[in-house]
Structure formats: C-alpha cells, structure tokens
Amino acid sequence: MTLFQATHPASQLSGKNVVVTGASRGIGASTAQALADAGARVILIGRFRETLENVAGGLPNDPVTVVADLSDPAAPRAIVEQVKDAVGTIDVLVNNAGGGDAVGPTHTLRSEDADFLWALNLRAPVLLGGIVAHDMAANGGGSVISISSGLSQQGMPGVSLYSAVKGGLEAATRSLAAEWGPSGVRFNVVSPGVTRTELGSWITADDNAQRKYLEKVPLGRIGEPDDVAAAVLFLASPGGAYVTGQAIAVDGGWITTAPTLFPST
Ligand SMILES: NC(=O)c1ccc[n+]([C@@H]2O[C@H](COP(=O)([O-])OP(=O)(O)OC[C@H]3O[C@@H](n4cnc5c(N)ncnc54)[C@H](OP(=O)(O)O)[C@@H]3O)[C@@H](O)[C@H]2O)c1
To answer: Is 166 one of the annotated active-site residues of the chain?
Structure first.
C-alpha cells in the first residue's frame, strides 16, 4: 500500500480526469501515481511516447498518454483537443513540466534559451490553464495546480530568468484564481525547494552544494517527489475546495529561513 492509499480514501478522485504535464519522470510521475491511487484517470503529457508509457504502465484507472512539446505555441490548444477526444472532460490540470537551460551569469544567457524558458515555464501553463478553465467552468468547476519554485521568492545568482518566470507563474495564478473562481475553478501553486529529481541533481549530485543548501532547511533533508505530490493531491481533492490563489511551499522550511547570525555554540 502506498502512502496515498494509506492516508487518503482511495475514492476521493474517483471518476475524475486529471491531466499532468511533464509526467514522464520526477515530480510529474509521482503526482500521476498519487492522483491515480486516489481514483483519478490520469492523462500523462510529455515529449516522448516511450517514457510516458513506462509511467502509465504502472498506473490504475486506464491512463492515457499524449505526446506534446509544451514550448510549442500550438501545444496548449492541441493538448486540450486530444484529451477531450480521448476522455471527454478535464477535472484537474497539473501544470508541472518545467526546466530549461537559461541559467548562469545573466550576461552569458542566450535569447533562444530565454525564449524557451518563458515558453515552457510561463506561457504554456497560463494558456493551458485558461483554455482548460473555460471548459471546466462549463462543467461545473475544477482545479488547476501549477508547480513553481522557491526561487520565485528568493534571489540567487545565476537564476534571474528562472526566478522571473516562476514568479510570473505565481502572479498569474492569483489573477487566474480571481478570473475563474466565480465559475468554480480553483487555481493554486505548489512551490518546491530542491527535490530529488533529474532537474534537482545540480544540487543533490554535488555534496558541497547540498550541504550548503541543507544548512538553511529546518527539516534537514532534500525533498522527495512524493512530498510535492502530496500537496498537489490536497489541492486537487475535495479537501482543498475552499483554497484558491495560494502558493504552498513544499521545501522543508527553506524559503522562510535565513542563515543564523548568532555565533555557533
Ligand atoms: N527538482 C527540483 O529541485 C525542483 C525545484 C523547484 C521546482 N521544480 C519544478 O518542478 C517541476 C518538475 O520538475 P522535476 O524536478 O520533476 O523535473 P524533471 O525530472 O526534469 O522532469 C521534467 C518533466 O517535464 C517534462 N518536460 C520538459 N520539457 C518539456 C517540454 N518542452 N514539453 C513537455 N514536457 C516537457 C519532462 O518530460 P520529457 O523530457 O519526457 O518531455 C519531464 O517529464 C518543474 O516545473 C520544475 O521547475 C523542481
């Protein structure tokens, strides 16, 4: 029995269709598993059929895979059409796909990498969220959860554009929550700290970087993909019915903690 089966009624998302972008690995794959274990039928989105099928093969409730590159301007509308053809309606959207190479000293960044970063991490989740919300409103409501980053709240050298697009996603979420709340569609953000995935390996594969990071994490460990998935499950489920426009940090306390200024004893 998984953590989610043990702590949540298995039926709470029963009959719901849930779209998870970036579901081929990492946080997206864990989220797909958690939501499927809670009874949802999951539609997994990513760029490669084989990796999506590998994850889908372990899920209950007849999952569906849709291959799409979310940096493509046409992707949001094309995804919605394919999902509706396959399963009818969408009840929950998890905007999880993210990442990109536009990191490093800002004067060295290439504009094509910057364009990709914004397209994948901000344009796609906002446009996909808007299109999906329009349909959700006609069906009585729904929940959209986007995965941001603690770097949206805290400055760090080398991540100016990544911080900007994740901060933009949080700002857009507040406006989308205001726009669609009257139609019963909730918009929220889950904001991870360093999490043990391929993307997080720039810290977890470097002992020195990990040690420095953990000095500022009161809970004293790196996040796991399941930690993030648990917060997404809450926001997707009836238990989150009165929560909208929020960003929930899942980071062991990293974002709210400054290094101590007292001499060590
Ligand atoms: N891990 C961390 O430390 C951390 C911390 C804060 C925030 N986050 C955020 O959490 C989210 C998930 O990150 P992760 O750590 O799970 O990353 P990951 O292991 O690198 O997985 C990224 C996922 O996004 C998909 N993806 C990437 N580019 C795509 C594109 N152009 N079109 C469609 N799908 C695409 C990938 O699928 P394919 O490559 O198969 O297409 C993969 O499924 C991201 O939004 C990230 O910014 C992560």
So the answer is: yes
- Residue 168, CB half-sphere, CA atoms under 13 Å: how many? 16
Supply the pTM of this predicted model: 0.96
CA-based torsion, 96, 46, 172, 151: positive or negative: positive
What span, in angstroms and rounded, lies between the C-alpha atoms of 145 and 235?
7
CA of 262 to the centre of ligand 1 (A): 38
Is 242 catalytic? The answer is no
Q: What is the dihedral of CA 86, 88, 92, 95, to 10 degrees?
A: 40
Inside any domain, residue 7: yes
**Structural domain boundaries enclosing 40:** 3-250
Helix 75-87 crosses helix 124-138 at what angle (to 10 degrees)?
40
158-213 per-position pLDDT tens digit: 999 999 999 999 999 999 999 999 999 999 999 999 999 999 999 999 999 999 99
- Report the pocket of ligand 1 as residue ranges, CB < 6 Å: 21-28, 46-48, 51, 69-71, 96-99, 120, 147, 149, 192, 194-195, 197-200
Residue 257 in any domain: the answer is no
Q: Which CATH number belongs to the domain containing residue 87 in this structure?
A: 3.40.50.720
**Residue type at 249 in one-letter notation:** A
